């Protein structure tokens, strides 16, 4: 069933612990229809908390923590999530993702299906492995877009590729290879938030980046 609304407002937000930013996420839910979160820092058994943040929202999420590890050291880390209004839930299909850095839903909108992908890309730790991980995550996103049989995409999140970084060139190649265009960016010292779409105009969606004050 297609969503009956003529417009949707989407926001991306690196919350860096959703437990410590519940009030900020609630405010975003008050204003937006779809909220994409990065670095929620939740364990797999805690993901249900995301659907309790706002009474009008449901969620789909991935945890970056592997609870099968015998020893968990330090705080939880990473994770992605998409919160969406219950009023549009009948027009939302959750897309299965095997990568905790990628969370996705398909919107069955009046103007056609739209794939919304929330991304938290690897950080640059200075070694070759992190570059390989960055390229691999980019390839996973590309494959996900191809498999979902849609022609409209919104890929938003923290791409960890500020200008001048090692990852910036890989990011540019990723966008060029897929004909994505950036419609909004928030370039900070340590990371880069980007919202990308396929090159065609995507009617009915308004996209925002949010920043912790």
Give a structural overview.
The longest helix is centred in the middle third of the chain and has 20 residues, at 128-147. The chain has three helices and eleven strands, in the order E-H-E-E-E-E-E-E-H-E-H-E-E-E. It has helices at residues 22-31, 128-147, 166-177, and strands at 8-14, 34-38, 57-62, 80-85, 92-95, 102-109, 112-120, 152-158, 180-187, 192-198, 205-210. It has one domain: Endonuclease/exonuclease/phosphatase (Deoxyribonuclease I, Chain A, 4-Layer Sandwich), CATH 3.60.10.10. 20% of the residues lie in helices and 34% in strands. The chain is globular and about 45 Å long. Helix 2 packs parallel to helix 3 (166-177). Mean pLDDT is 84; it is low at 188-192 and 198-203. A six-stranded mixed sheet has the order 5-6-7-8-10-9, covered by helices on one side. It is α/β, with parallel strands linked by helices and 213 residues long.
How is this fold's topology laid out?
Blueprint: E1 8-14, H1 22-31, E2 34-38, E3 57-62, E4 80-85, E5 92-95, E6 102-109, E7 112-120, H2 128-147, E8 152-158, H3 166-177, E9 180-187, E10 192-198, E11 205-210
């Amino acid at each position: 069933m297609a969503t009956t609304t003529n417009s949707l407002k989407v926001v991306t937000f690196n919350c860096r612990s959703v437990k410590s930013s519940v009030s900020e996420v609630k405010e975003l839910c008050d204003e937006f229809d779809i909220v994409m979160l990065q670095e929620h820092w939740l364990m797999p058994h805690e993901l249900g908390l995301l659907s309790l943040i706002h009474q009008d929202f449901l969620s789909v999420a991935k945890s970056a923590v592997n609870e099968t590890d015998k020893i968990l050291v330090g705080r939880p880390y990473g994770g992605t999530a998409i919160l969406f209004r219950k009023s549009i839930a009948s027009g939302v299909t959750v897309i299965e993702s095997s990568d905790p850095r990628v969370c996705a839903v398909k919107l069955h909108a009046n103007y056609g299906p739209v794939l919304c992908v929330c991304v938290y890309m690897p950080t640059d730790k200075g070694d070759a492995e992190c570059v390989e991980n960055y390229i691999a995550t980019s390839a996973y996103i590309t494959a996900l877009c191809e498999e979902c049989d849609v022609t409209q995409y919104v890929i938003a999140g923290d791409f960890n590729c500020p200008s001048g970084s090692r990852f910036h060139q890989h990011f540019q190649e990723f966008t060029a290879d897929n004909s994505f265009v950036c419609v909004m960016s928030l370039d900070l010292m340590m990371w880069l938030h980007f919202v990308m779409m396929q090159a065609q105009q995507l009617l009915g969606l308004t996209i925002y980046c949010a920043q912790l004050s």
